[in-house]
Write a structure and sequence with these properties.
The complex is a heterodimer of chains A (219) and B (223). Chain A has 219 residues and is of the alpha+beta class. Chain A has eleven helices and four strands; from the N terminus they run βαβαββααααααααα. In chain A, helix 1 packs across helix 6 and helix 4 runs parallel beside helix 7. The N and C termini of chain A lie far apart (53 Å). By secondary structure, chain B is an alpha+beta fold. Helices cover 58% and strands 8% of the residues of chain B. Chain B contains twelve helices and four strands. Chain B has a four-stranded mixed β-sheet with strand order 2-1-3-4, covered by helices on one side. In chain B, a hairpin with a 2-residue loop joins strand 3 and strand 4. Classes of the chains: A alpha+beta (219), B alpha+beta (223). Chains A and B meet through strand 4, helix 3 and helix 4 of A and strand 4, helix 3 and helix 4 of B.
Chain lengths: 219, 223
Amino acid sequence: MGDEVILLDFWPSMFGMRLRVALAEKGVNYEYKEEDLSNKSALLLKMNPVHKKIPVLIHNGKPVCESLIAVQYIDEVWKDKAPLLPSDPYQRAQARFWADYVDKKLYTLGSKVWQTKGEEQEASKKEFLDCLKLLEGELGDKPYFGGETFGFVDVSLITFYSWFYAYETFGNFSIEADCPKLIEWVKRCMEKESVSKSIPDPHKVYEFVLQLKKKFGIE
Amino acid sequence: MEEVKLIGTWRSPYSYRVTWALKLKGVKYEYVEEDLSNKSEMLLKYNPVHKKIPVLVHGGRAIAESTVILEYIEETWPNNPLLPIDPFEKARARFWIKFGEDKGSVFGNVFRTVGEEQVKATKEAKEVLRLIEEHALGGKNKLFCGDKIGLTDLVFGWFAGWLQVLEEANGVKLLDHNSFPKIQAWIENFREDAIIKENLPNRDEMLPYFKHLREKLIASATQ
């Protein structure tokens, strides 16, 4: 049976990257379609009429929107390989809690780090690092957030690594200095092909953010 | 059977989502009312990250964040399923759960603002209602995912038990009788469910609380 899988995405999106990683973990063949967010395709507008955002997973013509929902969908449909969520309901709840934490905090705080200056930036940096430290504490001595194997929380968080160099450069700080164990975890994840092939070069992301800053007149 | 405890507050729609789910599944539990102005050690111990209600404690282990709790309840007590079985339909149910979660603050803004700001917030809230009306409801379904109550309905349950009270406390009507017919029909269908009917907050008790809260919020907004 042929499955048609299309991913509508935008290369620097840490949300889109999550689907790339999940699909790679499952060994699913798919067609990647790059969206120009300043000129959204008719397909995107049709498949995500409510938010008009990427990523959108289109499976046999039917859309799944919102990155963590799509990762869960991928986990459920291609369940015979590389399970991302554990089977125990309590462990699943913990995984969902921490993925939700990443979603609630990191994007907004990270954005503030590169979009602001002075006191506001200092406050954002501190909050951002506090979040990463909390996550580092949750990781503990485990190789992955999922335990022995790469899982749902790992997928949710690792994609932000591609933006670390941009955050660090614009914010003038080092994430490794405050969160060495987290960076060890990053390196461990990046050794997986499903991750390293799905995540763009952090220097390219930095260049992209630099262009954004110029475009929106953010110093 | 392991002990189930729900830490919540009587006015919170987030707390009620969990109450409804537990009752729909026929789960016996102990309810603990939390005083949010003086958070208990138990709450801080069970939800150190967010320090918020609701928290579900099952066999001594805590689960926080209402939508995470709902999925936990669904998976732990599989009788009377509250999510579709088909992965695509499940993803669609979760999409609207997330939508309801993410847009809560839009309605909060109507409640906590005055003047121009409130006009703008009202417009945004009506846009959210329009999206639900056009994309989430309709067809053959009486409720969000079929004819039975599901998790998505629970997340929007606040429309059925709190919206009118907030509109009264606030002076801004978001759902007048001609508008959003599908949402209005959904509210009627939701309220008719045997379990929901018996477990809606008391309007007369809530109104003075929300009126007072509105006054406090305006006072600080106009300082």
